[in-house]
TrEMBL record:
Its EC number is 2.7.4.25. ATP binds at residues 10-18. GO terms for molecular function: ATP binding; CMP kinase activity; dCMP kinase activity. InterPro entries: Cytidylate_kin (IPR003136), Cytidylate_kinase_dom (IPR011994), P-loop_NTPase (IPR027417). One of its GO terms (biological process) is nucleobase-containing small molecule interconversion. Its main location: cytoplasm. NCBIfam families: cmk. The gene is cmk. SUPFAM superfamilies: P-loop containing nucleoside triphosphate hydrolases. The keyword Transferase applies. This is Cytidylate kinase. It is an enzyme of class 2 (transferase).
């Protein structure tokens, strides 16, 4: 039987990764967090103090970047960076790094190779529009900016981070703007994607909605 793919896209804090993980578990598919891959490259750029305007520096760093997804963890050149990639400095830079064509090319190649070899639930910004245009199911999750910021803020408070709600909101708005306005595979709903506004919906309600389409 051939592999099937489920694409879940949307802006920051819409609930993509939470929902995608549950769908993957229920349907016994592999969950692929493409945002984590861009975050890992960003961490490497920060570590190497790369000048993002300098293509040669970016290419050199990419040559020396090995990303592995193992279970729920992500490894950068053999080191588990699952926690580190959620740092505020990574949040700040990730959309700038994800704009670069060399970075996108390498990540998309990896993502397509993974989806070729197994059935996946893949979440990101351009999965339904660009990475897997022939995915069997495509969903675009969104929610009001207030709700998305509140969700992220609560998450960060639980982790003991000291950022304010206003800071979280502005960081998310800034990333959404860069992701939507970039030239290459910008954040947008695929024409054949099912739109789900998760504002006011529980995680269970969103999961049920998605499962009602794929069962
Ligand atoms: O979890 P959160 O919504 O905060 O972000 P993420 O999914 O971890 O993605 C982090 C960033 O990576 C996004 O803001 C985009 O700049 C970039 N990204 C992308 O360009 N394309 C993807 N398929 C996934 C993420
Ligand atoms: O991956 P993305 O940035 O789209 O969002 P997420 O990291 O999956 O979700 C952000 C937070 O919202 C998590 O703490 C979820 O538990 C919470 N949440 C949700 O995902 N969906 C809802 N319907 C309600 C809350």
């Amino acid at each position: 039987m051939s592999n099937i793919s489920i694409a879940i896209d949307g802006p920051a804090g819409a609930g993509k990764s939470t929902i995608a993980k549950i769908i993957a578990k229920v349907k016994k598919l592999t969950y692929i967090d493409t945002g984590a891959m861009y975050r890992a490259v960003t961490l490497k750029c920060i570590q190497e103090q790369v000048d993002l305007q300098d293509h040669r520096q970016v290419e050199a760093v990419l040559m020396d970047t090995k990303i592995e997804l193992i279970g729920d963890s992500i490894f950068l050149n053999g080191t588990n960076v699952s926690e580190e990639i959620r740092r505020s400095e990574v949040n700040k830079w990730v959309s700038e790094v994800a704009k670069l064509s060399a970075v996108r090319k390498k990540m998309v190649e990896m993502q397509r190779a993974i989806a070729d070899s197994q059935s996946v639930v893949m979440d990101g910004r351009d999965i339904g529009t660009f990475v897997l245009p022939h995915a069997a199911y495509k969903f675009f999750l969104t929610a009001s900016i207030e709700e998305r910021a509140k969700r992220r803020f609560e998450e960060q408070q639980q982790k003991g981070f000291s950022t304010s709600l206003a800071e979280v909101k502005s960081e998310i708005e800034n990333r959404d703007r860069i992701d939507t306005e970039r030239d290459l595979a910008p954040l947008t709903q695929a024409r054949d994607a099912i739109l789900i506004d998760t504002t006011g919906l529980s995680i269970e309600e969103v999961v049920d909605k998605i499962l009602s389409y794929i069962q």
